[in-house]
Amino acid sequence: MAAALTVDKTSTGNEYKVKDMAQADFGRMEICLAEVEMPGLMSCRTEFGPTQPLKDCQITGSLHMTIQTAVLIETLTALGATVRWCSCNIFSTQDHAAAAVARDSAAVFAWKGETLEEYWWCTEKCIVWEGRPLDMIVDDGGDATLLIHEGVKYEAEYAKNKTLPDPSTTDNAEFKLVLGLLKESIPKFPTRYTDISKSCMGVSEETTTGVKRLYEMCAAGTLLFPAINVNDSVTKSKFDNVYGCRHSLPDGIMRATDVMIAGKTAWIGGFGDVGKGSAMSMKAAGARCIVSEIDPICALQACMDGYQIMPIEDCLSYGDIFITTTGNKDIIMADMMAKMKNNAIVGNIGHFDNEIDMIGLENYPGIKRTQIKPQCDRWEFPDGHGVIVLAEGRLLNLGCATGHPSFVMSCSFTNQCIAQLELWKERATGKYEKKVYVLPKHLDEMVARLHLAKLGAKLTELTTDQAAYINVPKGGPYKPLHYRY
């Protein structure tokens, strides 16, 4: 199907492929509402806009194409950048947001409900620029970074002995598509991704799983350009992951199912930042909440917060809601779902789709799938009982709802904006090597400070003597690097 896709152009020459450009006005109205709720990004426009620090910078973004992301994109363009964007998830695009941005400010290739083939077509279109290659990447989950690194690897093989990627060498459906895409492009453009890797000044990565990939490449010595780990900024991990999930997990469950959470038994897989916010939301909604953990420290935290700790196997028969948050794989398997009570709800709020065994479920003997509504399916086992799976095992808060609210995404995306500014400013200085970096603490504090006035907060100021007594600068940073918020 993706082979038949064509790129459209606006009257001003912007390339795009979205579901419905007629939704652009609706998207623009919601973007205007979101701007009021995103003071960090709007402050970046006010402070940096006049000097156009990103002038002549070509930025590729692979991150959920939502209303909140639209405000990030238009902040980058307000600072002088030219932008191409795709979503990092087949279900997360808000079509009215994609239409508004495509019409008004940037090239967009994204729509809700893409096939995997269409998804990788969009990713390639986002990465490949006419003329000179991209300068920087905003990534979420690492797919844009992955495609470039795999492209460089296979271009080197092709240059050496004309070997092309072989999709049959992997059982992973998505990686088959990546290899197929490269197999088709390399004979036509044998140095495309190598050129991109040389041009790229760096990537800022949004999420835990993408950061994990970056650290692995860095340790192996294969990372091709500098990277800033935005995920581990405190104003990202503790705000987006905890408070964002606290808001958007129940939102996704309730929009998809209309099932009352109060009185139910909810199981949460993992008690990291995402798990903490998720468990908090289920408990606040009146559910009895059970947590599974491998880490004794996180498990002890969960105990002290009043949660019961047990493996999933111990509560399969009576749990009502099962949510994975781990970033790992093979957390809820098909044989586990077969043991759940009728109409138990199964969902994932981690980045990828491999926490829930969707392949095993699809191939379970005698299984029957019924779509209740888009991204809400009932899978019936041969004995007649079934489970309700949300968003096909992908991010349910974005697949079934609209993801995190604007205010908390302002914290995350202000970090992204600052990271892009830093990488571009230092592109010729050698400050950033082909390694993974975290933004310094004073910038973390600045991001938090930008959001306080919106909430009516007024900070207490240290006296000179007080600052000297605890040995911190009067204006911050106020905590040592090892401090855990």
TrEMBL record:
InterPro entries: Adenosylhomocyst_ase-like_sf, Adenosylhomocysteinase-like, Ado_hCys_hydrolase_NAD-bd, NAD(P)-bd_dom_sf, S-Ado-L-homoCys_hydrolase_CS. The keyword Zinc-finger does not apply. Gene3D superfamilies: Adenosylhomocysteinase-like (3.40.50.1480), NAD(P)-binding Rossmann-like Domain (3.40.50.720). Binds 1 NAD(+) per subunit. The keyword Zinc does not apply. Its EC number is 3.13.2.1. CDD domains: SAHH. Its cofactor is NAD(+). It catalyses: S-adenosyl-L-homocysteine + H2O = L-homocysteine + adenosine. It is an enzyme of class 3 (hydrolase). Signal peptide: none annotated. Pathway: Amino-acid biosynthesis; L-homocysteine biosynthesis; L-homocysteine from S-adenosyl-L-homocysteine: step 1/1. GO terms for cellular component: cytosol. Keywords: Hydrolase, NAD, One-carbon metabolism. GO terms for molecular function: adenosylhomocysteinase activity. NAD(+) binds at residues 207-209, 272-277, 293, 349-351, 397, 404. Substrate binds at T66, D140, E206, K236, D240. Belongs to the adenosylhomocysteinase family. This is Adenosylhomocysteinase. It comes from Cymbomonas tetramitiformis.
